[in-house]
Predict the 3D structure of the following.
Amino acid sequence: MTFPTHTPAKKEFTLPTEALRQAIEKEWNGQEKYVSAKMPLTSLAYTAIDRIAPQAEAIIEALLVYADTDTLCYRAPEEELAARQKAGWDVVLGWSSLLLGVKWQVVEGIMPLDQPPELHAALRAYLAKQDAFGLAAFSVLAGGFSSLVLAKAVVENHLTAAEAYELSRLEENYSAEKWGRDTEASERSARLKDEMLAAGRFLKLLDAR
């Protein structure tokens, strides 16, 4: 199919890097008569231009909700799972705290945890530096991981998208070891992983700037 010149909202389809343009062109060349849903790079670029760019401040506000609900800050009461979370998550939380200049707080159980105002401010400043394309990928990662920490780790090349995905599924994988995993859950997990890997690839293509 013909490479698009405009987005669904009729905005000019201008991409920030030649590497991203070539990758998206390959997605379109792989289509026949109809546009397939399996065009994640195109979808992210459309989102950046049509949805993120016109309302970046609102997107940042929505992302900041994850600050107080970040997966990595809530630890299980079960000793074995909590040990796995500590081993896998503490080093990433420490890295993020150092980068932001404010320490993330951690709690056991599911009682609400309010992170310090200084942390919210540091996160806001960090997100404000991202352009629309970066925010599009960040939004997908944060939603998929339920974690700003893991999303930021992928954006900053501290973790690969695959590594971050595995860390975000510690509790799910622990439960699967104990009780087994049904087919539907496995299919959902596979779809989510594909989305996260696509967002990670999108970021790599942006890095060519």
Notes: The chain has ten helices and two strands.
